[in-house]
Structures are given as structure tokens and as C-alpha cells.
Write a structure and sequence with these properties.
The protein is of the alpha/beta class. The chain has 12 helices and 26 strands. It has helices at residues 12-23, 49-52, 57-60, 65-70, 130-142, 153-164, 185-197, 245-249, 295-309, 373-382, 392-396, 402-412, and strands at residues 4-8, 29-34, 73-77, 80-84, 89-92, 97-99, 102-105, 109-111, 124-125, 145-149, 168-173, 201-204, 208-214, 217-223, 228-230, 233-236, 240-242, 258-259, 271-273, 278-282, 288-290, 321-326, 329-335, 342-348, 353-360, 363-370. The protein binds flavin-adenine dinucleotide (FAD).
Length: 413
């Protein structure tokens, strides 16, 4: 196919869509439109190695300038402001009008703002972009007491880094357990204990009501029950909001994300959406509308769309997977975080190396592994089994060779 593909959003998904289009042999024009300055970069190190100085700006860039040049991928630094579907044009803040034959929306998500007085004080940080991390890093180096609002992945990754750097860290979480939207009860319990053992104070059912400050500088977080937790640095990690406005204003359907079908197409056959901004019917979740925030999801959806545009359509069916590094603990999740009826442990949480196998009825739906990369890789195979898969009894059998069993099941499915 020739013509022009315009990709909006030069993050993980947008970058991958442009790169995969060339890998798939697409010979037309590719424009990658991103509002952020500089070359596309990875976000995961921003809450991990970048904060400790083990990664720098150059090392987190997804590719060098020559990569884009050699593949004739045109990088356009601009903010897309509107889609004219009748004319097949993307309008940009600079005034440019970019004609497209196909438009890929990869606009990602933005941080949910903390809706309390004092949230604008100096010393209150968020973590989504490279400038966010650049602003945070020097302040982290000089801070003594940090309060983290939200015990999700990013809040806990940051808490682990800050604690290892010698700060007193308190995590305030509104729900009753860490990472409650995304992990099983045993994993929540394990991480709570591990972070507490490392010296991080964790408070659950605790809601920030106000950031208190001396002059313009944050000094403490006041909770709903009137307590003051001292802080010279506050990190807010209370989730994200998908960037759907472009699509919504163009009349496309929105349901916690830009609604797409199993080919990641919107109702307009010339517009796809991928990554954090897209809500797709997950085959893995029985067709339920699903919006994921992970590198795997952005990358695999980008590849799927690129293959379709290049003339090789196939429904998007990838097995979801995710990782989070929290201090010395590497959590890897294969499958989806839907309510689990049964959880079965393999390995010993006491040794900080174990996996939780999650079943929905008789069906294995997810495997969460802590410092057990081999289990995670096998889990991704087990979850790909089409017919009857690993049983609960087999998961509970510590003597069973999981790798062998995965091969048998895949062979017969
Ligand atoms: P993004 O990568 O966010 O890219 C979207 C881009 O679109 C942005 O650059 C944005 O500025 C741009 N954009 C938006 N609107 C417009 C517009 N109108 N015009 C032009 N440009 C626009 N995932 C994991 O799997 N493991 C991890 O350990 C992990 N750690 C993370 C740590 C941090 C600190 C963060 C923030 C995320 C982490 N993630 C992790 C999540 C992962 O990075 C995201 O899921 C992934 O980046 C999503 O890719 P995306 O392309 O959908 O969105």
C-alpha cells in the first residue's frame, strides 16, 4: 500500500507503529506527529533507573535520529488539535494540515491531577514525561521526607527508589491494599510486607485532603482524618486519564478510551487507535472492552495495526503481559487482572521468589511472578493454550514440570 499514514503521538505505541509499518514493507509516507520535544523515548525507566542516575536521557531514547532518517519516517513536532474526517486531514497547533489515507491515534494518557488545595505547591511532583523526571531527580537527591499519594505501580516504584536513597517514605493509599486494581490479594500482601520491611510506611484507607506549605513550598500532606504527614517532596501517582479528546471531538465513540474493534479500528475505517488511549474488545477477557496501560499492549497493538495497513490484517489477540520493578523485586504479570476466584502459590514468598496462579473457575487467567522470570515466560505459553489448559490441581503440584506441561498442552491445542 502507498499513500500517507499519519501517526499521532510519538510515544511507545506511535513509534512502534511507524517502525513496524516499514518492517511490514509499507512504502508510502509516514508522519509521526508528537507534541513532546526530541526523539521518542521509553517511559518505564523514568520511575526506576533514570531517577537513580543509572539511565540518562540518551539511553532511554527508543532509537537514534538516523533510524528515522534511514526509514523515511518524518518526525513532526506539533500538537494535533483536530481531525477533519471528511477531508482526511489532521489539523495541528502550528497551523499545518496533514493529509492522511490512514490515521493512527496513539495519544496515550495523562496523569490524573490531585484535586486538593495545595496541589500546585513547589515540591509536588507527577511522573509521566521526561521533563517530569528531570524536574524530580535533583529534588529527590536533596529531599529527606517523601510522601507518595497512591500505592499503584508508579507510586511504589518511586517509593522503593526514594527509600533506597535514604529518604523517609510514607505511602498514602485510599483503598485497602497496594496495586488493588491490578494484582491478586497474595501479591498485594507480599508487596505490602516487603515495602514495610524495607522501612517504607504504608497507610491504607488514607486519603490526601490538602498539601500544606510554608510559603510556596510543600511541607506536609494532611489526610482526610486530619493528620499531618511531613514531606519536603510529594509524589502523586493516582492513575491516568486517556487522551481521547481528538477522537471525541471528531465524533468517534469513547468508552474509557477510544473504542476500537478487534482490528483496532474505530467506526471510521481510516482511523485506528492503539495503546493507553484505546479501548478494545479483548479476546482474552471474553470480548470485554479493555484498556491497558503497558508497553506490551502499545507495542503489540502497533504491530497489529501496521500489519493490517500493509495488507495483512489479523485480529488483535496478544496475551497481555506487564512488569514492575520495585527495589529488588521484579513483578511480572501474564494475563489480565480480572477478579480471581482461586489463587494458587508456587514457590515460597519467604524467599521472595514465587508465582501466583490465578483461576477464574477452571480457567487459568493470569500468573503473577516475583523474581521468577522462568515462570513468567512459561505462563505466557500456558495462557496461549486454546483448549482446556493447566488445571488447578496441576498448578498446585510443586513437582510438576511446568515447561514440559506447557509444551504438551500447546501441542494438543
Ligand atoms: P505514550 O507512550 O504515553 O505516548 C503518547 C504520546 O502522545 C505522548 O508523547 C503524548 O505527548 C503524545 N500526544 C498526546 N496527545 C497528542 C496530540 N494531540 N498531538 C501530538 N502528540 C500528542 N509499562 C510497563 O509495561 N512496564 C513498566 O514498568 C512501566 N513503567 C512505567 C513508568 C512510568 C513512569 C510511566 C509513566 C509509564 C510506565 N509504563 C510501564 C506504561 C507505559 O510506558 C505506557 O503504557 C506506554 O508508554 C503507552 O504507550 P502509548 O504510545 O500508548 O502512550
Amino acid at each position: 500500500m502507498t499513500g500517507t499514514v499519519v501517526v499521532v503521538g510519538a510515544g511507545q505505541g506511535g513509534f512502534q507503529a511507524a517502525a513496524s509499518l516499514r518492517d511490514e514493507g509499507y512504502a508510502g509516507r509516514i508522519l509521526l506527529v508528537g507534541e513532546e520535544p526530541g526523539l521518542p523515548y521509553q517511559r518505564p525507566p523514568l520511575s526506576k533507573a533514570y531517577l537513580t542516575g543509572r539511565a540518562d536521557e540518551a539511553s532511554i531514547r527508543l532509537r537514534s535520529a538516523s533510524f528515522f532518517h534511514e526509514r523515511s519516517i518524518e518526525l513532526v513536532q506539533d500538537r494535533a488539535t483536530a481531525i477533519d474526517r471528511d477531508a482526511g486531514q489532521l489539523h495541528c497547533a502550528s497551523g499545518a494540515r496533514l493529509a492522511y489515507d490512514h490515521l493512527v491515534l496513539a495519544t496515550g494518557a495523562r496523569n490524573r491531577s490531585l484535586p486538593v488545595p495545595g496541589a500546585e505547591l513547589d515540591g509536588v511532583f507527577y511522573l509521566r514525561t521526561l521533563p517530569d523526571a528531570e524536574a524530580l531527580r535533583p529534588r529527590l537527591a536533596e529531599a529527606r521526607r517523601a510522601v507518595v499519594i497512591g500505592a499503584g505501580f508508579i507510586g511504589l516504584e518511586f517509593a522503593a527508589v526514594a527509600s533506597a536513597m535514604g529518604l523517609d517514605v510514607t505511602v498514602l493509599e485510599a483503598t485497602s491494599r497496594p496495586m488493588s486494581r491490578a494484582v491478586s490479594l497474595p501479591i498485594s500482601a507480599f508487596f505490602r510486607e516487603a515495602h514495610e520491611a524495607a522501612g517504607i510506611a504504608m497507610e491504607f484507607g488514607s486519603v490526601a485532603a490538602r498539601i500544606l506549605g510554608e510559603g510556596s513550598r510543600a511541607e506536609a500532606v494532611e489526610t482526610m482524618d486530619g493528620r499531618e504527614v511531613p514531606a519536603d517532596l510529594v509524589l502523586v501517582g493516582i492513575g491516568v486519564v486517556p487522551n481521547v479528546e481528538l477522537a471525541a471531538e471528531a465524533g468517534l465513540a469513547i468508552a474509557n478510551g477510544i473504542s476500537v474493534d478487534e482490528h483496532l479500528l474505530t467506526a471510521d475505517p481510516a482511523i485506528s487507535a492503539i495503546g493507553d488511549c484505546a479501548s478494545y474488545p479483548s479476546a482474552f477477557a471474553g470480548g470485554a472492552a479493555t484498556r491497558l496501560e503497558s508497553v506490551q499492549n502499545a507495542v503489540d497493538q502497533a504491530r497489529s495495526v501496521a500489519a493490517r495497513i500493509a495488507g495483512r490484517p489479523r485480529p488483535y489477540r496478544a496475551i497481555p503481559w506487564f512488569w514492575s520493578d520495585q527495589g529488588p523485586l521484579k513483578l511480572q504479570i501474564a494475563g489480565l487482572a480480572i477478579p480471581h476466584e482461586t489463587t494458587i502459590l508456587r514457590g515460597d514468598p519467604g524467599s521472595a521468589s514465587f508465582s501466583v496462579f490465578c483461576f477464574d473457575g477452571p480457567r487459568l487467567v493470569g500468573v503473577e511472578s516475583v523474581n521468577r522470570a522462568a515462570d513468567h515466560m512459561i505462563a505466557r505459553r500456558l495462557l496461549a493454550v486454546a483448549g482446556p489448559g493447566l488445571t488447578r490441581e496441576e498448578a498446585a503440584d510443586a513437582g510438576l514440570d511446568l515447561r514440559q506441561r506447557a509444551l504438551e498442552l500447546l501441542g494438543s491445542s
